[in-house]
């Protein structure tokens, strides 16, 4: 029997047949779970509700005439349904989540305890300022430390996510150009070909035209190509640093100087701040605006659409254009400056106005400040150092069987391509599906697009050496199996997942978004 070094079978044929049939569809603790619509009774309810009496129709004649069509479940049925679904989902609390460019790090439970304190968790968004002094002080304190960590004089706390923070930064740049009378003249935004997809999308949303900057042979921005594209119609540049290839842009200061000399602004995508927090201040690199993913750098792994927060730090040149509202401290009391009629707002210059309702994401603010205060200055610096150390350890362990995309050390994520799979018949997607059978969520696949068959691994600082070694051993085993000609098993993977490989293309093109009850046999005829 073929075993890996943990003693587990590595081939479906070496273990119990994954396709074994059972009466229930269950396979031991792998419970087959139907849709709630199929479990529940559409005509009934798990709750006894009295028919309303003496009520008049307040719906303007739009009262429902037929059943709502939702499944009625008892409490045990509802609990079991959602617990079983949760057990099919991979999570950071189950094992490493190696998604590159996403920073899925451990969320300390201390953060959750603090975020659930009644004064924060129960605070209503429309509470008067007099009843929210602690929350406003927390926001102001967090803003102070974000400015300290980045070396920037101002920060907008209201953006709800990274892309929202990008929008804030680019809107501030556009407002600054309008104040200079150059909004109609400076219409081009430069972006490296390895940029996050949200970068060009945000620039276009703000009315700019995007031009791509090629990379050089080391995976970084080609400085000379950048300089050739500069002109008096350039509004600015959007650069991620460390970039999406997991590399630090060595020419970052020269890039900033060249863009500033041409009259443009420098927007830095802060998605990868987890690699340099406490080590480098973006303000010292010439950055004019940078969003910070609190849910990446300062814990609370994101997923499922939220929660997120993307405060955006601004340079002295862009600070006057920061959005409303923002926290102020006057006569020992905290408040929100929400309108241009406020004297302080009038003094601040030409703010771009309100970016969003309310003021950011309180739960994320609480967790982020808790993370900062529990780690301290030295701890944040060490977290960045350990994230880089772990990524380089993974790079060193895997390069004997897999192919790194670029020579030399990386920052917080290691990038591989599919050259090691050449002539094996195994593709990047097959490798990813085989990782699921080994109990791992695949790394980021096919991104960045500048690398063919990309596999981007970000272990973060959260993983111990034991976890990293087990992860690397699993990938090395898969690479050796692919080279040994076990193509068929890769094409069949995943074998041990609750569902086998899906037709993802067909699912994306023809999604089934509404459940319909199965037709009766006589109706089908």
Keywords for this entry:
7-stranded mixed sheet; Aspartate Aminotransferase, domain 1; Aspartate Aminotransferase, domain 2; globular; alpha/beta; 13 strands; 4-stranded antiparallel sheet; disordered N terminus; 17 helices; 525 residues
What gross morphology would you assign? globular
By DSSP (H or I, 4+ residues per run), the number of helices equals 17
Strand order of the largest sheet: 1-7-6-5-4-2-3
User: How confident overall, as mean pLDDT?
Assistant: 89
Q: Strand percentage, roughly?
A: 5-15%
CATH class of the largest domain: Alpha Beta
Query: Termini distance?
Result: 51 Å
CATH topology of the largest domain: Aspartate Aminotransferase, domain 2
Q: What is the string of helix and strand elements?
A: HHHHHEHEHEHEHEEHEEEHHEEHEEHHHH
Major sheet: 7 strands, mixed
Number of strands: 13
Explained architecture:
InterPro entries: Aminotrans_V_dom, GDC-P_C, GDC_P, PyrdxlP-dep_Trfase, PyrdxlP-dep_Trfase_major, PyrdxlP-dep_Trfase_small. It is an enzyme of class 1 (oxidoreductase). By secondary structure, the protein is of the alpha/beta class. It has 2 domains: 111-369, Aspartate Aminotransferase, domain 2, CATH 3.40.640; 383-505, Aspartate Aminotransferase, domain 1, CATH 3.90.1150.10. It is 34% helix and 10% strand. It contains 17 helices and 13 strands. The protein has helices spanning 36-39, 75-86, 109-115, 118-121, 133-150, 162-179, 198-205, 223-229, 252-261, 294-297, 343-347, 362-398, 428-437, 465-483, 487-492, 504-509, 521-524; strands spanning 154-156, 188-192, 209-213, 234-240, 265-269, 289-291, 312-314, 326-330, 333-337, 403-404, 414-417, 444-445, 455-457. A 7-stranded mixed sheet has the order 1-7-6-5-4-2-3, with helices on both faces. Strand 4, helix 9 (252-261) and strand 5 form a beta-alpha-beta unit. Helix 3 runs antiparallel to helix 12 (362-398), helix 5 runs parallel beside helix 12 (362-398) and helix 6 (162-179) crosses helix 7. It is globular, with a radius of gyration of 27 Å.
């Amino acid at each position: 029997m073929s075993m890996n070094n943990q003693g587990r079978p590595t081939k479906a044929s070496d273990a119990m047949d994954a396709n074994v049939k059972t009466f229930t569809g269950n396979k031991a603790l792998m419970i087959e779970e139907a849709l709630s619509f199929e479990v529940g009774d559409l005509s009934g309810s798990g709750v006894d509700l009295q028919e309303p009496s003496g009520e008049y129709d307040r719906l303007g004649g739009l009262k429902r005439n037929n059943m709502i069509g939702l499944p009625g479940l008892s409490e045990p049925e509802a609990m079991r349904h959602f617990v079983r679904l949760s057990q099919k989902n991979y999570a950071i609390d189950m094992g490493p989540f190696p998604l590159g460019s996403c920073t899925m790090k451990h969320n300390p439970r201390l953060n959750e305890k603090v975020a659930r304190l009644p004064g924060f968790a129960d605070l209503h968004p429309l509470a008067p300022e007099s009843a929210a002094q602690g929350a406003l002080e927390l926001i102001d304190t967090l803003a102070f430390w974000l400015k300290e960590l980045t070396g920037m004089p101002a920060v907008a706390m209201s953006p709800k996510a990274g892309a929202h923070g990008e929008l804030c930064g680019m809107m501030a740049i556009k407002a600054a150009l309008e104040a200079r009378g150059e909004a109609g003249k400076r219409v081009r935004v430069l972006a490296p070909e390895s940029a996050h997809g949200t970068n060009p999308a945000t620039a276009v949303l703000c009315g700019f035209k995007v031009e791509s900057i090629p990379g050089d042979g080391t995976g970084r921005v080609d400085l000379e190509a950048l300089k050739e594209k500069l002109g008096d119609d350039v509004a600015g540049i959007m650069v991620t640093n460390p970039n999406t290839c997991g590399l630090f842009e060595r020419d970052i200061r020269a890039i900033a100087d060249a863009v500033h000399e041409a009259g443009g602004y420098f927007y830095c995508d802060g998605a990868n701040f987890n690699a340099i927090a406490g080590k480098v201040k973006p303000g010292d690199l010439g950055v004019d605006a940078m969003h910070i993913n609190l849910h990446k750098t300062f814990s609370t792994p994101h997923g499922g659409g939220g929660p997120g927060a993307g405060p955006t730090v601004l340079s002295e040149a862009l600070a006057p254009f920061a959005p409303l509202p923002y926290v102020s401290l006057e006569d020992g009391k905290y408040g929100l400056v929400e309108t241009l009629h406020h004297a302080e707002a009038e003094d601040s210059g030409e703010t771009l106005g309100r970016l969003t309702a309310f003021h950011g994401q309180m739960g994320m603010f609480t967790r982020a400040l808790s993370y900062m205060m529990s780690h301290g200055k030295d701890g944040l610096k060490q977290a960045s150092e350990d994230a880089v150390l772990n990524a380089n350890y993974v790079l060193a362990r895997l390069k004997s069987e897999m192919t790194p995309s670029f020579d030399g050390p990386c920052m917080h994520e290691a990038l591989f391509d599919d050259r090691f799979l050449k002539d094996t018949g195994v593709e990047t997607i097959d490798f990813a599906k085989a990782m699921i059978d080994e109990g791992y969520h695949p790394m980021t696949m096919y991104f960045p697009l500048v690398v063919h068959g990309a596999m981007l691994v970000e272990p973060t600082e959260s993983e111990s050496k034991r976890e990293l070694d087990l992860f690397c051993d699993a990938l090395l085993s898969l690479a050796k199996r692919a080279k040994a000609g076990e193509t068929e098993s890769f094409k069949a993977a995943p074998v041990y997942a609750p569902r086998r490989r899906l037709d993802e293309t067909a699912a994306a093109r023809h999604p089934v978004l509404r459940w319909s009850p199965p037709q009766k046999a006589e109706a089908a005829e």
